[in-house]
Amino acid sequence: MFKGKAGSLKFLSSLGLNVPPFTVITHEEFVSWGDKKIWDELYQALSTTDAKKIENLAQSFIHSVHIPASRLELGKNVHYAVRSSASLEDSPEHSFAGIFETKLFISQKLNEAIKEVWHSLFHTKALQYCVDRRLSWSLLKMDIVVQAMIDGEKSGVLFQADPLGKITEQTIVAGPGLGQGIVDEETDTDRYIVENNIVKVKHIHKKQHYIAFDQGSNMLIKKELADDQRELSALSDTEIEKLLKASAILSSKVEHFLDIEFTFKNGELFILQARPITTVPSRKHIHIFDNSNIAENYPKQSTPLTYTALARGYSANFKNLVRYLGFSEDDFRYINHSLENLVGQWGGQIYYNLNNWYSVYTLLPFGGEKAASSFEEMVGIGTSGMIEVPERTLLQKIRIIAKILPKFASFYLMAGRHHRKYKKEFKELYGRFNHDAHHAKDAFETIHLLSRLDSEFLSIIKIPLLNDFFSSVLNRSCRILAGRLAGSRGDQLYNDLLSHREDLESSKAIYSLIGLAESVRANPAVANFLEKNLQDHHILARLLEHSEFRDFYHQFKAHLDRFGDRSQWEMKIEVPTARENPETTIKLILEYAKAGMSEESQRSREREKSDYAHKELRKYWFTKPFTSLLFWQLFSKCTEAICFREDARFDRVRFKGLSRKLVLNLGKNLVAKKWIDQTEDIFYLTYDELMSLVYDTYGPGYWRELISLRKNHLEKLKDLKLPDRILVNDLTPVEKISEKNQVLSSNSVRGVPCSGGVIETQCEVVLDLNQAPSLNGKILIAERTDPSWGYFFVGVKGIIIEKGSMLSHAAIISRELGIPCIINVKNATERFKSGMKVRMNGDTGEIEIL
User: Taking the model in full, what pTM does it have?
Assistant: First the structure.
């Protein structure tokens, strides 16, 4: 890190930033220009705390100093700023803010100004600052910066992080005139909040006064701002962009967050100085949490049982995977802690711990950064810019390649065989435990069965995890190749080509519902019965009571037996399945029936887009044969991997459904024994606490009190609006990083296009599927989706989602159904209101309120 203002200016200049001309008079130079005898006496006095004696000696020494004229020329007709640059000043540990003198707009008596600033090193307040912080005064040295003064038209400070600790945002404070007016609070200022290099909030205030330099009096004066300038933004968008570019240059070179003083003159940006924000630790110690992708499966708050089971699952899964790839315990011991903490929880909401995810990529012998980029694209996050994937030595790379290459090659060449082996193992495991779950006699047996189910399932999940890695790399590779083939059309054609995958399990679920809707449409009596009994929780039993409805009953039961574990927020163990609450499914069937949907028309719609994209990309066989050959070979593997990824995800839903059945059985047992008050209270225990009930020594009162405490705590935090990405470097209360809702006025926004087509119709904002009205013929707008939402996609004209990635469920199913879809639309559920007429372009990502 640079030392003092002098070091700061030299560093800024070395980066090519526009710094006003300056010269530095070093401490040693200044001392050499004075009386050596007086200096020796002064230096001896510095070891004492006699402030009066020290200041008098310093005054005598300064009178003896003669500054050479050759050290003071920076140009003609120049006014100078004279600033202190003490050895510890502006350091990350000690700012010395307001301790030393600064002289501005000096044109005459420059010698006296330099001496006054150097003398401030020996002022009483400087001594007291050192005493308070146990610093040795004798260690301080004072360089002097003499710099050309810029008569700025607008000035301010950019904070690369909130000094109070919110490090996800940069803050710009700016106002008209000179920066001195802002520092002295004589100038009204505007404030700009920036996140991910985008101005998130502009606080534009009415400005009355500013500070300027008056040439006549050679003084700083307070002036009134012209009436037509008072309510304008202090900075233009172009000026903010220049500032953010300068900030980005510094961020790439400096570990600490900085506050950067700046001024603009005739549109030209001058960086005056930069110093560490002493209340915020360096970037090296930042922990990054991101929920851009994981919120698709675990939105809003999750109970302790869901979170701890997930955390345990991730840890066990990745350890099993690295062992399967041939790594020994010693090979990954250094990231063992990371593997045990791949997720975190804020206010009850689940986030990826990105630091630890990235550390997994350090196991790769080569291409760690590219693999990390593929991971970012798969989960729909932006690069952090703060985590580096370290490279290995050549010898280390060769040794690891020899270990893992056979496994990678086997999986790539024989992926289908590995997929089938996993499916066979899962089918056997699910059937066995589903049978045993019905025969568990008591709490002990249920707990042991739950533990065995968890362990056995985690032992086979390594194949889906390895497939996830391949699907992310293959998808990224195919997208790049499609761009090389078709240029700017590549992304759109590739998205359309991914549609119409009939072997997706999630698509089969939708077609099963459409089949049920066709049966209802063919039998009005069934439709009438369902309409009348829609809210009846025992509707299946009611259907069976009527002989004329038995065919539909068996068809519907077969659907629930196969797909009944699907539900909104289906990966959360506390959420009931469709099998438990079939009303939402019946409501969908009735909507499908009224809309006249048929399986053939749906498949025809999907094939049309896919066939067109296939035809267009095939044209490049003759002009770009090698790229085409590589693309189609990889695309075949990619679609196989993506389909298996979706199917394996459905297996995890079925695993959750089976686990939920066992946990509820245990909950009922504990209610009967009066250990907990309600069956669902069991979800407020952690996984380890659940297992510990076998040898519990606390008794029922402890568990009831603990559950009540957790429920109350989560209830207090449930309305917190948290950002997608959280950056922390210390213990931080979750309330401190919550976001306030903002009023957004722009009529047009842009997101990431992932399924093509242009649609213009009314939109419907849906926050909870259980409260959703009919979506037929509308554009669906939601914060995030999971696979259970796929049922609702049928019949909608377009889909707009706040979160997600190119491989998220909304993207995959929208392509499969041929529905225009745009993801990563910031604040979509706040910006749009149900009933608004909206035009969306799924090819470009543009959305407009009409």
Answer: 0.68
